[in-house]
Structures are given as C-alpha cells and as structure tokens.
C-alpha cells in the first residue's frame, strides 16, 4: 500500500504530464526529486491504473487531455447519479458491479488529483505575490517552456499577474526581456533576498489571447474550424472562447480576434490544416503559406 507522500507524488505526476509541453524522464526526475528508477515505477503504475502515457516526436512523455465527452471526468453529482442507476440493476449483476467500481475510482481519483494540483498552484501564486509586494527577485524552478521545449530555472523580477492568474508577467534577468510565464508550468518557487534592480525596464502590456504581449494588437485573425479544432483551441487558450461563435446548422465554428503575433495561432492552424480554414487577414494567410512552403 502506498503511503501518503507517494500518493501525493502520483497525483502530482498525473497533472504534471497533463500540462504542456511533454516532459523528458530527466525533467520528471527533477520535478519529483527522485531517482530515474522510481520515475519508471510511477509511470508503470499510471499505466496499470489506465492512464495512457504517450510520447511525442522527441520521445518526451505526456498524458493527452481529450476534449471528447468520453473522457470528461464525472462531477460528484454525476457520479452519484450513475451509482444510483447502476445499483438499481441489482447487486448480483457483475457488469453493474464492474462499472460501479470504475465510476467511483475514476471520479474520486480525478477530484483528489485536481484538488492537490490546485493547492500546489495556490502556493506558487502566494509566493509570487510575496515577491511582488516585497519587491524581491525570485527563481521559477523547473519552468517548462512550450517554445524551447525545455525545462530550466528562470531568475526573474515579477511584475504582475494576468487578469485570470493563469500567467505572470516578469522581467527575466538573463535575456533582459519582459515575458509571460504560465503558472501551471512552474514546478516550484525559490524566493530570494535580492531586491529588484531592473525596475526601470519593467513593462506590462496586456497579453493577447495567445499570451503574447506588445504595445498594440494590430494583427487580425479570422478562422472557420471544426468542432474538434474549436474544443482544442479553447482548451489550449481559454481566453479564445469569448471570440468564438458557433455557425448554426453547420457543425462549424467562427473565430475572429486581434493578436500581437502570428506565431501561436500559426502553430495551431498548422496542426489542423484539414480542419481549419483561414478566412483572414491576408497577412495571416500569407504567413501560413510561407510556413507551409518552408515545411514541404
């Protein structure tokens, strides 16, 4: 039987592998502060519990978060309702017993995992808030970058949170740039006694829905997409939901917004070339054509 600490680590690993980008075994080892052998034991256990651990083109690991209804976790109310329906079939029904057990285990595991992960994020937000108030530098430990596909420590001077607390705007000492860092991609925080030294260079511009900041959002994007593409766009970039409308009687969705950069929406479109139609702008359509020709 697992002790409490090992169960906690297991739930940490579930959410760590769900958060993008994919992780190397080395980064998991560092995140859990354990040995490579122990990491593989946890991965084997997750497989035994029914989690599908996949590998990307760089052989890094992740747990795919599906938007299909078959994989949406049960709420406590839904799980209770299903239990009542299943129990009405009679206790001697073996199929009912099997389904009941799976409903209970999956819903409770997901609820505990989510609670632990939210507690972990809450602690990170609290520590960053202290650094902002005390005007001190801090280190974002084990930050997983989607752009560089790497995990590293970042020495920063925190400026402020985004409106929904999904990210923090901070001045990175090494690059001397103001950047946005996704809270879910931070493994932990190291608070430093070093006071901020670069406040004159701190700048905050409200990020676009893809997380890019700049002085003006002059780039236009207009798309028509399938339901699958719509669900994944909304999942990857939650702020995009306000700019998406369903097209009646077509099963399609329309998206139009102004952004700072074509990079993130361009990557999204490239991943769904058969399910996304670029309606505008001409500048964005030209950008996609150049990327396609470069990759073919």
In terms of topology, how is this protein built?
Elements: H1 4-18, H2 25-32, H3 36-48, E1 53-55, E2 61-63, H4 76-87, H5 94-134, E3 136-145, E4 150-161, E5 167-172, E6 177-182, E7 188-195, E8 219-225, H6 227-236, E9 244-247, E10 252-259, H7 263-271, E11 276-280, H8 282-295
Antiparallel strand pairs: 1-2, 3-4, 3-7, 4-5, 5-6, 8-10, 8-11, 9-10
Task: Please summarize the sheet with the most strands.
Answer: 5 strands, antiparallel
Order of helices and strands: HHHEEHHEEEEEEHEEHEH
Mean pLDDT: 80
Structural class: alpha+beta
**What is the helix tally?**
8
Query: Which stretches are low in confidence, meaning pLDDT under 50 for 5 or more residues running?
Result: 67-72
Radius of gyration: 22 Å
For the record, the CATH class of the largest domain is: Mainly Beta
* Form type: globular
Distance between the first and last residues' Cα: 52 Å
Beta percentage is 15-25%
The total tally of domains equals 3
CATH architecture of the largest domain: Roll
* Share in helix: 40-55%
CATH fold descriptor of the largest domain: SH3 type barrels
Strand order, biggest sheet? 6-5-4-3-7
């Amino acid at each position: 039987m697992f002790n409490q600490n090992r169960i906690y680590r297991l739930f940490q690993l579930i959410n760590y592998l769900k958060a993008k980008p994919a992780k190397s075994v080395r980064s998991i080892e560092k995140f859990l502060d354990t040995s490579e052998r122990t990491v593989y034991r946890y991965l084997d256990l997750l497989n035994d519990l029914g989690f599908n651990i996949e590998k990307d083109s760089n052989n890094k690991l992740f747990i795919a978060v599906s938007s299909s209804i078959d994989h949406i976790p049960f709420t406590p109310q839904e799980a209770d309702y299903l239990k009542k329906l299943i129990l009405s079939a009679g206790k001697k029904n073996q199929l009912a017993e099997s389904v009941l057990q799976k409903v209970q285990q999956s819903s409770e595991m997901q609820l505990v995992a989510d609670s632990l992960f939210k507690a972990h994020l809450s602690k990170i937000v609290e520590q960053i808030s202290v650094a902002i108030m005390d005007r001190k530098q801090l280190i974002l430990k084990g930050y997983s970058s989607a752009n560089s596909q790497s995990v590293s420590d970042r020495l920063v001077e925190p400026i402020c949170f985004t409106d929904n607390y999904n990210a923090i705007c901070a001045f990175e000492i090494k690059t001397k740039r103001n950047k946005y860092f996704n809270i879910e991609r931070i493994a932990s925080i190291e608070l430093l006694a070093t006071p901020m030294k670069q406040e004159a260079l701190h700048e905050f511009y409200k990020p676009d829905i893809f997380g890019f900041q700049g002085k003006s959002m002059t780039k236009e994007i207009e798309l028509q997409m399938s339901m699958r593409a719509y669900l994944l766009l909304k999942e990857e970039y939650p702020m995009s939901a306000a700019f998406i409308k369903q097209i009646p009687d077509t099963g399609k969705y329309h998206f139009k917004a102004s952004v700072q950069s074509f990079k993130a929406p361009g990557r999204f479109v490239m991943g769904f070339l058969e399910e996304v139609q670029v309606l505008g702008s001409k500048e964005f359509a030209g950008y996609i054509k150049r990327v396609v020709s470069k990759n073919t």
